[in-house]
Amino acid sequence: MKRDYGIDIWGDNNFIIKDSTVNINYKKQPSLLEITQTIREQGYKGPVLLRFPHLIKKQISTLYKEFNRAREEFDYKGKFQAVFPLKVNQFPNFINSLMDVSKSYNYGLEAGSKAELLIAMTHTPVGNPITVNGFKDKEMISLCFIASNMGHNLTITIEGLGELETIIQVKKEFNQEKENPIIPRIGVRIRLHSGGIGIWAKSGGYSSKFGLTSTELLEAYDLMKKNRLLNQLWMIHFHIGSQMSEIAPLKKALREAGNIYADLKNRGAFALNAINIGGGLAVEYSQHKNAKELNYALSEFANDVVFFIKEIAKNKNIKEPDIFTESGRFIASSHSVLIAPVLELFSQDYHEKSLRLKKSNPPLISELNDLWHALNRENAREYLHDAIDHLESLLTLFDLGYIDLEDRSNTEILVHLIIKKSIFLLQSEGTEELKKLQQKIQERYLVNFSAFQSLPDFWGLGQHFPVMPIDKLDIEASNPATLWDITCDSDGEIAFNENLPLYLHDVDVNKNEYFLAFFLTGAYQEVLGMKHNLFTHPTEVIVDFDENGNYILKKLIESQNIMDVLEDMDYDKNYLDKKIKQLIEVSTLITLSEKQELLGKLYLYLSENSYLKTIQANNKE
Ligand SMILES: Cc1ncc(COP(=O)(O)O)c(C=O)c1O
Question: pLDDT above 70 covers what percent of the chain?
Answer without folding.
Answer: 96
